[in-house]
Protein backbone atom coordinates (compact mmCIF):
# COMPACT_ATOMS: atom_id res chain seq x y z
CA UNK A 1 0.00 0.00 0.00
CA UNK A 2 1.62 3.30 -1.06
CA UNK A 3 2.15 5.83 1.70
CA UNK A 4 -0.19 8.82 1.80
CA UNK A 5 2.35 10.94 3.68
CA UNK A 6 2.42 14.37 2.01
CA UNK A 7 4.64 16.32 4.40
CA UNK A 8 7.44 17.54 2.11
CA UNK A 9 6.12 20.57 0.23
CA UNK A 10 3.27 22.74 -0.98
CA UNK A 11 2.92 22.63 -4.77
CA UNK A 12 0.61 24.32 -7.28
CA UNK A 13 -1.18 22.78 -10.27
CA UNK A 14 -3.68 24.76 -12.36
CA UNK A 15 -3.92 27.39 -9.63
CA UNK A 16 -4.81 24.88 -6.90
CA UNK A 17 -2.63 24.16 -3.87
CA UNK A 18 -1.57 20.67 -2.83
CA UNK A 19 0.64 19.12 -0.18
CA UNK A 20 2.99 16.59 -1.68
CA UNK A 21 5.66 14.01 -1.01
CA UNK A 22 7.36 11.72 -3.57
CA UNK A 23 4.64 9.09 -3.88
CA UNK A 24 1.51 8.88 -6.04
CA UNK A 25 -0.78 10.75 -3.64
CA UNK A 26 -1.24 14.47 -3.08
CA UNK A 27 -3.87 16.34 -1.08
CA UNK A 28 -5.61 19.44 -2.37
CA UNK A 29 -5.86 22.06 0.37
CA UNK A 30 -7.70 25.32 0.85
CA UNK A 31 -4.95 28.00 1.03
CA UNK A 32 -7.14 30.17 3.27
CA UNK A 33 -8.14 27.59 5.90
CA UNK A 34 -5.57 24.81 5.19
CA UNK A 35 -8.51 22.40 5.15
CA UNK A 36 -7.89 19.18 3.22
CA UNK A 37 -10.19 19.02 0.21
CA UNK A 38 -9.45 15.81 -1.66
CA UNK A 39 -6.88 13.10 -2.23
CA UNK A 40 -5.43 13.06 -5.75
CA UNK A 41 -3.73 10.00 -7.23
CA UNK A 42 -1.16 10.64 -9.99
CA UNK A 43 -1.60 7.10 -11.35
CA UNK A 44 -5.25 7.82 -12.23
CA UNK A 45 -4.07 10.34 -14.82
CA UNK A 46 -0.74 9.03 -16.06
CA UNK A 47 1.36 5.86 -15.76
CA UNK A 48 3.83 6.89 -13.07
CA UNK A 49 4.58 5.52 -9.62
CA UNK A 50 5.02 8.91 -7.99
CA UNK A 51 6.26 12.44 -8.65
CA UNK A 52 8.68 14.78 -6.91
CA UNK A 53 7.60 17.46 -4.46
CA UNK A 54 9.68 20.03 -6.39
CA UNK A 55 7.94 20.91 -9.66
CA UNK A 56 8.96 23.88 -11.79
CA UNK A 57 6.60 26.56 -13.05
CA UNK A 58 6.34 28.67 -16.19
CA UNK A 59 4.97 32.21 -15.97
CA UNK A 60 1.71 31.07 -17.64
CA UNK A 61 1.16 28.36 -15.01
CA UNK A 62 2.43 25.38 -17.03
CA UNK A 63 4.05 23.01 -14.56
CA UNK A 64 6.84 20.48 -15.08
CA UNK A 65 7.66 17.57 -12.81
CA UNK A 66 9.37 14.19 -12.89
CA UNK A 67 8.14 10.74 -11.93
CA UNK A 68 9.33 7.16 -12.34
CA UNK A 69 7.45 4.32 -13.98
CA UNK A 70 8.10 0.60 -13.64
CA UNK A 71 6.66 -1.88 -16.11
CA UNK A 72 7.32 -4.68 -18.58
CA UNK A 73 9.68 -2.43 -20.54
CA UNK A 74 11.73 -1.70 -17.43
CA UNK A 75 12.00 1.50 -15.42
CA UNK A 76 11.90 5.02 -16.85
CA UNK A 77 12.51 8.55 -15.66
CA UNK A 78 9.56 10.56 -16.99
CA UNK A 79 9.37 14.32 -17.46
CA UNK A 80 5.77 15.41 -16.93
CA UNK A 81 3.97 18.50 -18.18
CA UNK A 82 0.75 19.72 -16.55
CA UNK A 83 -1.30 22.33 -18.47
CA UNK A 84 -1.90 25.73 -16.84
CA UNK A 85 -5.68 25.89 -17.12
CA UNK A 86 -8.63 23.83 -15.93
CA UNK A 87 -11.27 22.68 -18.38
CA UNK A 88 -13.83 22.72 -15.55
CA UNK A 89 -13.96 23.49 -11.83
CA UNK A 90 -13.39 19.87 -10.78
CA UNK A 91 -10.15 19.46 -12.74
CA UNK A 92 -7.03 18.28 -10.92
CA UNK A 93 -4.34 16.66 -13.09
CA UNK A 94 -6.40 16.18 -16.25
CA UNK A 95 -4.31 16.80 -19.36
CA UNK A 96 -0.96 15.84 -17.82
CA UNK A 97 1.35 14.21 -20.36
CA UNK A 98 4.74 12.56 -20.50
CA UNK A 99 6.99 14.99 -22.32
CA UNK A 100 9.94 12.61 -22.39
CA UNK A 101 11.05 9.24 -20.99
CA UNK A 102 14.68 8.49 -20.18
CA UNK A 103 16.01 4.96 -19.70
CA UNK A 104 18.22 4.49 -16.61
CA UNK A 105 21.80 3.31 -16.97
CA UNK A 106 20.67 0.17 -15.12
CA UNK A 107 17.02 -0.81 -15.64
CA UNK A 108 16.75 -2.69 -12.34
CA UNK A 109 18.66 -0.09 -10.34
CA UNK A 110 17.49 3.39 -11.35
CA UNK A 111 18.78 6.41 -9.47
CA UNK A 112 16.97 8.17 -6.66
CA UNK A 113 16.27 11.85 -7.29
CA UNK A 114 14.53 14.53 -5.26
CA UNK A 115 14.42 17.44 -7.71
CA UNK A 116 15.62 18.57 -11.14
CA UNK A 117 16.73 21.75 -12.89
CA UNK A 118 14.93 23.91 -15.47
CA UNK A 119 16.29 26.69 -17.67
CA UNK A 120 14.41 28.71 -20.26
CA UNK A 121 14.49 25.91 -22.84
CA UNK A 122 15.73 22.79 -21.07
CA UNK A 123 15.02 20.31 -18.30
CA UNK A 124 18.21 19.07 -16.60
CA UNK A 125 18.01 15.71 -14.85
CA UNK A 126 20.87 14.36 -12.74
CA UNK A 127 21.33 10.59 -12.65
CA UNK A 128 23.33 10.14 -9.47
CA UNK A 129 24.78 6.99 -7.87
CA UNK A 130 22.12 6.72 -5.15
CA UNK A 131 20.52 3.55 -6.50
CA UNK A 132 17.09 1.97 -6.01
CA UNK A 133 17.32 -1.82 -6.08
CA UNK A 134 13.85 -2.54 -7.45
CA UNK A 135 13.92 -6.25 -6.63
CA UNK A 136 14.81 -5.60 -2.99
CA UNK A 137 12.23 -2.82 -2.70
CA UNK A 138 9.41 -4.89 -4.24
CA UNK A 139 10.17 -7.87 -1.99
CA UNK A 140 10.96 -5.87 1.16
CA UNK A 141 7.65 -6.61 2.88
CA UNK A 142 7.92 -10.33 2.17
CA UNK A 143 11.44 -10.34 3.57
CA UNK A 144 10.49 -8.30 6.64
CA UNK A 145 12.78 -5.46 5.60
CA UNK A 146 12.32 -1.72 5.28
CA UNK A 147 12.12 -0.18 1.80
CA UNK A 148 15.20 1.81 2.72
CA UNK A 149 17.27 -1.39 2.65
CA UNK A 150 16.88 -1.31 -1.13
CA UNK A 151 18.55 2.12 -1.45
CA UNK A 152 22.34 2.23 -1.72
CA UNK A 153 25.16 4.68 -2.40
CA UNK A 154 27.34 3.26 -5.19
CA UNK A 155 30.27 5.65 -5.79
CA UNK A 156 31.86 3.29 -8.31
CA UNK A 157 29.50 4.99 -10.78
CA UNK A 158 29.84 8.56 -12.00
CA UNK A 159 27.08 11.15 -12.00
CA UNK A 160 25.42 11.86 -15.37
CA UNK A 161 23.55 14.92 -16.60
CA UNK A 162 20.63 14.52 -19.02
CA UNK A 163 19.43 17.61 -20.91
CA UNK A 164 15.96 17.63 -22.51
CA UNK A 165 14.41 20.26 -24.76
CA UNK A 166 11.24 21.10 -22.84
CA UNK A 167 9.46 22.36 -25.98
CA UNK A 168 9.97 19.20 -28.07
CA UNK A 169 10.77 16.49 -25.50
CA UNK A 170 14.01 15.69 -27.34
CA UNK A 171 16.87 14.32 -25.24
CA UNK A 172 20.01 16.12 -26.36
CA UNK A 173 22.63 13.69 -27.70
CA UNK A 174 25.51 15.03 -25.59
CA UNK A 175 26.90 13.02 -22.68
CA UNK A 176 27.97 15.04 -19.65
CA UNK A 177 29.27 13.43 -16.50
CA UNK A 178 31.14 14.21 -13.31
CA UNK A 179 32.66 12.49 -10.33
CA UNK A 180 30.08 10.78 -8.07
CA UNK A 181 28.08 13.14 -5.90
CA UNK A 182 24.65 13.24 -4.29
CA UNK A 183 22.23 16.12 -4.69
CA UNK A 184 18.77 16.69 -3.29
CA UNK A 185 18.06 20.30 -4.27
CA UNK A 186 18.82 22.40 -7.34
CA UNK A 187 19.39 26.14 -6.90
CA UNK A 188 18.90 27.41 -10.45
CA UNK A 189 19.80 26.77 -14.09
CA UNK A 190 20.19 29.16 -17.00
CA UNK A 191 21.61 29.33 -20.52
CA UNK A 192 24.54 31.42 -21.68
CA UNK A 193 26.68 31.27 -24.86
CA UNK A 194 25.56 27.79 -25.87
CA UNK A 195 25.89 26.33 -22.38
CA UNK A 196 23.57 25.38 -19.54
CA UNK A 197 24.82 26.65 -16.19
CA UNK A 198 23.53 24.45 -13.38
CA UNK A 199 23.80 25.38 -9.69
CA UNK A 200 22.93 22.86 -7.00
CA UNK A 201 23.73 21.66 -3.49
CA UNK A 202 26.08 18.66 -3.57
CA UNK A 203 27.50 16.09 -1.19
CA UNK A 204 30.51 13.90 -1.95
CA UNK A 205 29.01 11.01 0.02
CA UNK A 206 25.46 9.83 -0.62
CA UNK A 207 25.02 7.80 2.56
CA UNK A 208 23.33 10.74 4.30
CA UNK A 209 19.87 9.19 3.94
CA UNK A 210 20.86 6.47 6.40
CA UNK A 211 21.42 9.13 9.05
CA UNK A 212 17.72 9.88 9.37
CA UNK A 213 16.68 6.53 10.78
CA UNK A 214 14.52 6.70 13.89
CA UNK A 215 17.17 5.16 16.11
CA UNK A 216 19.51 8.02 15.19
CA UNK A 217 16.94 10.80 15.50
CA UNK A 218 16.03 9.58 18.99
CA UNK A 219 19.56 10.18 20.20
CA UNK A 220 20.55 13.32 22.06
CA UNK A 221 23.62 15.14 23.34
CA UNK A 222 27.01 13.74 22.37
CA UNK A 223 25.46 10.67 20.72
CA UNK A 224 23.53 12.90 18.32
CA UNK A 225 26.63 15.03 17.69
CA UNK A 226 28.52 11.88 16.70
CA UNK A 227 25.89 11.10 14.08
CA UNK A 228 26.13 14.62 12.68
CA UNK A 229 29.95 14.50 12.61
CA UNK A 230 29.83 11.30 10.56
CA UNK A 231 27.86 12.67 7.60
CA UNK A 232 28.92 14.54 4.49
CA UNK A 233 27.98 18.22 4.18
CA UNK A 234 26.13 19.71 1.22
CA UNK A 235 27.69 22.75 -0.42
CA UNK A 236 26.60 24.92 -3.37
CA UNK A 237 28.39 24.15 -6.64
CA UNK A 238 28.20 25.26 -10.26
CA UNK A 239 28.51 23.08 -13.36
CA UNK A 240 28.70 24.23 -16.98
CA UNK A 241 27.31 21.92 -19.69
CA UNK A 242 28.34 22.95 -23.25
CA UNK A 243 25.47 21.92 -25.52
CA UNK A 244 27.04 22.02 -28.98
CA UNK A 245 29.61 19.25 -28.75
CA UNK A 246 30.23 17.12 -31.84
CA UNK A 247 32.94 15.12 -33.59
CA UNK A 248 34.76 18.32 -34.56
CA UNK A 249 34.98 19.55 -30.96
CA UNK A 250 38.61 19.30 -29.79
CA UNK A 251 39.52 16.68 -27.19
CA UNK A 252 41.17 17.76 -23.94
CA UNK A 253 40.23 21.43 -24.21
CA UNK A 254 38.12 23.31 -21.66
CA UNK A 255 34.85 24.06 -23.45
CA UNK A 256 33.56 26.57 -20.91
CA UNK A 257 33.45 30.00 -22.65
CA UNK A 258 32.06 31.88 -19.65
CA UNK A 259 34.53 34.25 -17.96
CA UNK A 260 32.58 34.50 -14.69
CA UNK A 261 32.89 30.86 -13.62
CA UNK A 262 35.82 28.51 -12.98
CA UNK A 263 33.76 25.40 -13.77
CA UNK A 264 35.36 23.23 -16.45
CA UNK A 265 33.98 20.98 -19.19
CA UNK A 266 36.48 18.87 -21.14
CA UNK A 267 35.69 16.47 -23.98
CA UNK A 268 37.24 13.03 -23.61
CA UNK A 269 38.43 10.81 -26.44
CA UNK A 270 35.19 8.78 -26.22
CA UNK A 271 33.12 11.90 -26.91
CA UNK A 272 31.80 12.34 -23.38
CA UNK A 273 32.26 15.65 -21.58
CA UNK A 274 33.85 15.52 -18.14
CA UNK A 275 32.50 18.34 -15.95
CA UNK A 276 34.33 19.79 -12.97
CA UNK A 277 32.44 22.10 -10.62
CA UNK A 278 33.18 25.51 -9.19
CA UNK A 279 32.43 26.10 -5.51
CA UNK A 280 29.92 28.91 -4.99
CA UNK A 281 31.25 29.81 -1.56
CA UNK A 282 34.36 31.06 0.20
CA UNK A 283 36.51 29.01 2.57
CA UNK A 284 35.08 30.56 5.74
CA UNK A 285 31.60 29.41 4.71
CA UNK A 286 32.35 25.84 5.82
CA UNK A 287 32.04 26.68 9.52
CA UNK A 288 28.27 26.99 9.02
CA UNK A 289 28.04 23.31 8.12
CA UNK A 290 27.20 23.65 4.45
CA UNK A 291 23.91 24.74 2.91
CA UNK A 292 20.63 23.11 1.97
CA UNK A 293 17.02 24.08 1.18
CA UNK A 294 18.15 26.70 -1.38
CA UNK A 295 15.75 29.37 -2.60
CA UNK A 296 15.95 32.26 -5.08
CA UNK A 297 13.75 35.10 -6.29
CA UNK A 298 11.93 32.43 -8.32
CA UNK A 299 9.42 34.49 -10.29
CA UNK A 300 12.15 36.79 -11.54
CA UNK A 301 15.23 34.57 -11.75
CA UNK A 302 14.33 30.94 -12.32
CA UNK A 303 15.87 29.88 -15.63
CA UNK A 304 17.77 33.16 -15.87
CA UNK A 305 21.17 34.44 -14.83
CA UNK A 306 20.99 35.61 -11.22
CA UNK A 307 23.16 36.77 -8.33
CA UNK A 308 21.71 35.73 -4.96
CA UNK A 309 20.42 32.59 -3.32
CA UNK A 310 19.30 31.78 0.21
CA UNK A 311 19.36 28.62 2.29
CA UNK A 312 19.73 26.96 5.68
CA UNK A 313 23.12 26.43 7.28
CA UNK A 314 23.45 22.97 8.84
CA UNK A 315 25.68 22.80 11.90
CA UNK A 316 23.23 20.19 13.22
CA UNK A 317 21.03 17.47 11.72
CA UNK A 318 18.47 20.21 11.09
CA UNK A 319 19.16 23.73 9.89
CA UNK A 320 20.27 26.17 12.60
CA UNK A 321 20.89 29.32 10.55
CA UNK A 322 19.72 31.22 7.49
CA UNK A 323 22.26 32.24 4.86
CA UNK A 324 22.30 34.64 1.91
CA UNK A 325 25.02 34.05 -0.70
CA UNK A 326 26.25 36.52 -3.31
CA UNK A 327 27.42 34.35 -6.22
CA UNK A 328 29.51 37.10 -7.83
CA UNK A 329 31.60 37.92 -4.75
CA UNK A 330 31.00 34.70 -2.75
CA UNK A 331 30.33 36.87 0.28
CA UNK A 332 27.51 35.75 2.54
CA UNK A 333 25.27 37.00 5.34
CA UNK A 334 23.91 34.92 8.21
CA UNK A 335 21.01 35.01 10.65
CA UNK A 336 21.21 32.69 13.64
CA UNK A 337 20.06 32.59 17.23
CA UNK A 338 21.00 30.06 19.90
CA UNK A 339 18.45 27.29 20.31
CA UNK A 340 16.56 28.26 17.15
CA UNK A 341 16.08 26.11 14.06
CA UNK A 342 14.69 27.92 11.00
CA UNK A 343 12.88 26.30 8.10
CA UNK A 344 13.65 26.84 4.43
CA UNK A 345 13.84 30.58 3.63
CA UNK A 346 10.96 31.65 1.38
CA UNK A 347 11.66 34.74 -0.73
CA UNK A 348 8.77 37.20 -1.18
CA UNK A 349 9.61 39.95 -3.71
CA UNK A 350 8.67 43.60 -3.49
CA UNK A 351 6.22 44.15 -6.39
CA UNK A 352 7.87 45.71 -9.46
CA UNK A 353 11.21 46.05 -7.68
CA UNK A 354 14.35 46.93 -9.61
CA UNK A 355 16.83 44.96 -7.47
CA UNK A 356 16.90 41.16 -7.47
CA UNK A 357 17.07 41.01 -3.67
CA UNK A 358 14.34 43.57 -2.95
CA UNK A 359 11.94 41.64 -0.76
CA UNK A 360 11.68 39.73 2.49
CA UNK A 361 12.68 36.29 3.68
CA UNK A 362 10.09 34.26 5.62
CA UNK A 363 11.07 31.30 7.78
CA UNK A 364 9.26 29.35 10.49
CA UNK A 365 11.60 29.00 13.47
CA UNK A 366 11.16 26.27 16.08
CA UNK A 367 13.00 25.43 19.29
CA UNK A 368 13.24 22.33 21.50
CA UNK A 369 13.43 24.62 24.52
CA UNK A 370 10.42 24.19 26.78
CA UNK A 371 8.02 27.14 26.83
CA UNK A 372 9.73 28.83 23.86
CA UNK A 373 7.20 29.66 21.17
CA UNK A 374 7.68 28.97 17.50
CA UNK A 375 7.65 32.09 15.37
CA UNK A 376 7.50 33.33 11.81
CA UNK A 377 10.72 35.24 11.17
CA UNK A 378 10.79 38.13 8.69
CA UNK A 379 14.17 39.30 7.34
CA UNK A 380 15.02 42.08 4.91
CA UNK A 381 16.31 40.04 1.95
CA UNK A 382 18.85 42.71 1.01
CA UNK A 383 20.44 43.44 4.39
CA UNK A 384 19.43 40.19 6.14
CA UNK A 385 18.41 42.20 9.19
CA UNK A 386 15.39 41.09 11.19
CA UNK A 387 12.25 43.11 10.50
CA UNK A 388 10.03 41.27 12.95
CA UNK A 389 8.63 38.00 14.18
CA UNK A 390 5.14 36.65 14.83
CA UNK A 391 5.05 34.19 17.72
CA UNK A 392 2.72 31.20 17.87
CA UNK A 393 2.19 29.79 21.35
CA UNK A 394 2.24 26.14 20.31
CA UNK A 395 4.91 23.50 19.81
CA UNK A 396 5.51 22.88 16.10
CA UNK A 397 7.55 20.22 14.28
CA UNK A 398 10.51 21.19 12.11
CA UNK A 399 9.35 21.82 8.55
CA UNK A 400 10.98 21.15 5.19
CA UNK A 401 9.62 23.33 2.39
CA UNK A 402 6.95 26.00 2.07
CA UNK A 403 5.28 28.48 -0.24
CA UNK A 404 4.04 32.06 -0.01
CA UNK A 405 0.54 32.95 -1.12
CA UNK A 406 -1.42 36.16 -0.78
UniProtKB/TrEMBL annotation:
Signal peptide as annotated in the record: none
Note on how the cofactor is bound: Binds 1 Fe(2+) ion per subunit.
InterPro entries: Carotenoid_Oase (IPR004294)
Binding site for Fe cation: 54, 114, 185, 401
Catalytic activity: beta-cryptoxanthin + O2 = all-trans-10'-apo-beta-carotenal + (3R)-hydroxy-beta-ionone; (3R,6R)-3-hydroxy-10'-apo-alpha-carotenal + O2 = (3R,6R)-hydroxy-alpha-ionone + 4,9-dimethyldodeca-2,4,6,8,10-pentaenedial; lutein + O2 = (3R,6R)-3-hydroxy-10'-apo-alpha-carotenal + (3R)-hydroxy-beta-ionone; all-trans-10'-apo-beta-carotenal + O2 = beta-ionone + 4,9-dimethyldodeca-2,4,6,8,10-pentaenedial
Tagged with keyword S-adenosyl-L-methionine: no
GO CC terms, sorted: mitochondrion
Localization terms from the record: Mitochondrion
Name used for this protein in its record: Carotenoid-cleaving dioxygenase, mitochondrial
Amino acid sequence: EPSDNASVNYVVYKGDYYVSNENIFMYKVDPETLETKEKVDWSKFIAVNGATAHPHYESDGTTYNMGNSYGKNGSRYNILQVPPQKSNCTDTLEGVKVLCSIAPMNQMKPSYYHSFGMSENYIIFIEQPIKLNLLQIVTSKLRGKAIFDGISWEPQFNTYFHVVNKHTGEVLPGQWYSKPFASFHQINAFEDHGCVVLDLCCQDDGTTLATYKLQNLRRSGEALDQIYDSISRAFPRRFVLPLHVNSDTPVGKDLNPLPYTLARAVKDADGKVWCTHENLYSDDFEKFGGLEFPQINYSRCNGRKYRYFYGCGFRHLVGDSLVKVDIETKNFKVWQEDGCYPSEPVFVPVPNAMAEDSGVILSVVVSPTENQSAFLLVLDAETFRELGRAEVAVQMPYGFHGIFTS
